[in-house]
Amino acid sequence: MKATCWFGKNDVRVEQVPDPEILNPRDAIVRITSTAICGSDLHLYDGFIPTLDKGDILGHEFMGEVVDVGKGVNNLKVGDRVVVPFPIACGNCFFCKKELYSLCENSNPNAAMAEQLWGHSPAGIFGYSHLVGGYAGGQAEYAQVPFADVGPIKIENGFTDEQVLFLSDVFPTAYMAAENCNIQPGDTVAIWGCGPIGQLTIKCAYLLGAERVIAIDRVPERLRMAREQGGADTIDYTAVDSVIDMLREETGGRGPDACIDAVGMEAHGHGIQYAYDRVKQAAMLETDRPIVLREAILACRNGGTVSVPGVYGGFLDKIPFGAVMNKALTIKTGQTHVQRYLRPLLERIRNGEIDPSFIVTHRLPLDAAPEGYEIFKHKQDDCIKVVLKP
Ligand SMILES: NC(=O)c1ccc[n+]([C@@H]2O[C@H](COP(=O)([O-])OP(=O)(O)OC[C@H]3O[C@@H](n4cnc5c(N)ncnc54)[C@H](O)[C@@H]3O)[C@@H](O)[C@H]2O)c1
Ligand SMILES: [Zn+2]
Ligand SMILES: [Zn+2]
């Protein structure tokens, strides 16, 4: 089959690789009909996530048709149409029973490696380095899906692929990011980043009752989408002296009730702080550029919540933890517990409360995955989200 493989920084190629097979009774094989490139894939493409090998198959947002099932999978049959969640979860462990699926303790065969870095290991993730399992990803013609009796959700006809594809990751991620803010009537929510996650988080914050959303980015078409599709007010962070001052002014001097970092480890910025993080990251003295996280902590009102869907990998410098403590902030984060949200969010799509497909700007054949990565990374051609069709 054909698959999108990682070969190094800024180097992905569509290669011919062996077809996946059923290895365990709880596996299924899915023929992929739609798959997307995620902001998280850019961290791999930009070389910031360690433990990838040349030839590793990328991709963790995918859906398709079941073409084979193991003996232990009783809820799916050949021909079923499914969306597959990006974390791999067994359904039976301590964490899965608490619906903390992205922390499943049975799905990362390389847990020892993750424990060295983080103390404990999260779940395995499709196509996301050996640190989280070394599983082949879904930017391919076929994928092997472990614990297929737990993860995939069956989709009846009547939905287009693009309406349901984002149940695999970005829609639940946005929803959990907003849910983590415990939004109350009258709340103002500030969201850094207007990529796919930011756009959907704006929608979810309103769905969960926010009175006002203020979205921050610098890319004009992303800010425009945040206003026109999301109904957010926007701040171009390159056009103001201080985002923090601006947010204070916009909230009667108090600060937003909740601040969401939908940017993560590769934030941009200007001035000395950005230069500091760029140099330290390049010299491998710091793993991440936590410019947005610092800003979110400092901007948030006393007693508010900082929600962090943005991905971080390692050790972050100059985090104002004194502000977290003295302002009595709550910090909520995590890889998304996607399995928990599949049914309720499919219901919201069915009811017409939201159609996540509005973020799709580019549809390309699988063979064009390398171009897709370039266009998405550099935000060329007003790109917000790329869907690949194998
Ligand atoms: N927690 C999860 O399970 C999960 C799931 C999916 C994605 N993510 C993470 O969410 C983040 C966003 O993903 P995406 O697909 O939207 O990515 P993206 O790269 O398309 O979007 C990031 C946006 O942040 C903007 N940005 C950069 N610096 C900024 C700053 N200083 N202030 C404000 N905006 C700034 C960029 O211009 C860009 O539009 C990534 O870190 C990704 O890894 C996490
Ligand atoms: Zn993702
Ligand atoms: Zn589990």
Fold and architecture overview:
Helices cover about 30% and strands about 20% of the residues. With about 400 residues, it is of the alpha/beta class. It folds into 2 domains: about 1-170 and about 335-390, Medium-chain alcohol dehydrogenases, catalytic domain (Quinone Oxidoreductase, Chain A, domain 1, Alpha-Beta Complex); about 170-335, 3-Layer(aba) Sandwich (Rossmann fold). Strands 3, 5, 6, 9, 10, 17 and 18 form a 7-stranded mixed β-sheet that branches. It has a 6-stranded parallel β-sheet with strand order 13-12-11-14-15-16, with helices on both faces. Strand 12, helix 7 (about 220-230) and strand 13 (about 235) form a beta-alpha-beta unit. The N and C termini lie close together (about 10 Å). The model has no long low-confidence stretch (mean pLDDT about 95). Nicotinamide-adenine-dinucleotide binds next to helix 1, helix 5, helix 6, strand 12 and helix 10.
Summarize the structure.
Helix content is about 30%, strand content about 20%. The protein is built from 13 helices and 18 strands.
Mean pLDDT score: 97
Query: How is the main sheet built?
Result: 7 strands, mixed
Bound molecules: nicotinamide-adenine-dinucleotide, zinc ion
What's the architecture of the largest domain, going by CATH? Alpha-Beta Complex
Category from helices, strands and their pairing:
alpha/beta
Please identify which CATH superfamily of the largest domain we are dealing with: Medium-chain alcohol dehydrogenases, catalytic domain
- Our estimate of the beta-strand percent is 15-25%
Backbone shape: globular
Rg computed from alpha carbons, rounded to a whole number of angstroms: 20 Å
How many DSSP-defined strands? Answer: 18
Number of helices: 13
Q: Per CATH, what is the topology of the largest domain?
A: Quinone Oxidoreductase, Chain A, domain 1
What is the CATH top level name of the largest domain?
Answer: Alpha Beta
Low-confidence stretches: none
Task: Give the tally of structural domains.
Answer: 2
Q: Kindly report how far apart the N and C termini lie.
A: 10 Å
Tell me the helix content. 25-40%
